[in-house]
Amino acid sequence: MSTTTAGCPECDGSLKQDGCETVCTHCGLVVGEDSIDRGPEWRSFEDEETDSARTGAPLTRSRHDRGLSTEIGRSTRLKGRKRRQMARLRRQHRRAQVSSKRERNQVYAFTEIRRIVGSLGLSAAIRDRACVLFESAQNEDLLQGRSLEGFAAATVYATCRTEGVARTVEELCRAARADPAELRAAYDALNRDLGLPTGPIDPREYVPRFASALDLPEEIRGRAEQLVAEARERGLVGGRNPAGVAAACLYTAAQERDGELTQAEAAEVADVTPVTLRATYTELQA
Questions:
Q1: What dihedral angle (degrees, nearest 10) is formed by the CA atoms of 75, 76, 82, 87?
Q2: Could you read off the pLDDT of 165-196 as tens digits, one per residue?
Q3: How many distinct helices (H) and strands (E) make up the chain?
Q4: How far is CA 101 from the centre of its chain?
Q5: Are 102 and 138 in contact (CB under 8 A)?
């Protein structure tokens, strides 16, 4: 289909637009050639008024195919034979998306990582980095003889350690499908073979979260952070559970302010025993 417009710059003749070229009908001058689609760049799926999209879903490292796969949708309008045919196509399509045991392991582990991250309320950045760490472990053949659940939990824990996000092993195990022994074995393998940039955990990282969970006032939290700094200067932090040190400092600060916090409550929020808390509390009082 062609359209005609006026205005040739050479002979003032009429112009004819045919396809991507604009040509003068009198002298034959090609005035312009433009194959760019001038239509809207957004795509409309269901609601073109309010839900216009310029791109598809973003790429993500939390899926084995980076989120580039497609899915065959469902429709209630299909009946009988056509509905059974689409169900068979959908099943075959799902099977074709995973072509090897390696990808199958990634699908399972990435799903577990996303579930753990969501359960603990962690960020999408932690989720993606944990998935990248799992893929690195897979490339180094660290998964042989170890559980996928343990490695999924270990990658989340290791990412939290490297990013300075305070989470205890017990918290991870409650959200994961792995026990502490599986998590620690997988974490040791990651730390040993991949050289994770992790250092000793600072007990002060646990103080704000524990104080919030115990509903303690700001002054007790501030005093607990001071006690953590004093404990580090006196050499009381090394070799101790950092969560237990944080809980003991909160308990000590609460006692100095005539708080009603008990040792059992402080120990429970830190996943340590009252005996562990009491030992650090006694050292702080010395």
A1: 60
A2: 888 888 889 888 889 899 999 998 888 888 88
A3: 11, 6
A4: 23
A5: yes
Nearest CA among 213, 100, 116 for reference residue 159: 116
| Torsions phi, psi for 239 (to 5 deg) | 80, 5
Tell whether 20 is in a known binding site: no
Exposure of 194 in the CB half-sphere (CA atoms within 13 A)? 26
Cα Rg of the chain (Å, integer): 31
Q: In degrees rounded to 5, what are phi and psi of residue 173?
A: -70, -30
Q: Which of 222, 210, 224, 221 is nearest to 271 (CA)?
A: 210
Residue 8 assigned ligand-binding role: yes
11 annotated binding-site participant: yes
Paired tokens of 263: 């040792």
Q: What is the value of pTM for the model shown?
A: 0.66
Q: What is the pLDDT of residues 228-259, one digit of tens each?
A: 888 888 888 888 888 889 999 999 988 888 77
The runs of H, that is alpha helices, within 51-147 are: 80-97, 101-120, 124-139
Residue 249 known to bind ligand: no
Place of tokens 């824990």: 157
Q: Give exposure, 10-24, as e/b (b: 16+ Cβ within 10 Å).
A: eeebebebeeeebbb
Distance CA 67, CA 270 (A): 37
For the chain, which domains are there?
Answer: 80-194 (1.10.472.10), 203-285 (1.10.472.10)
Helix (H) or strand (E) holding 18: strand 14-18
**CB distance 65 to 131 below 8 Å:** no
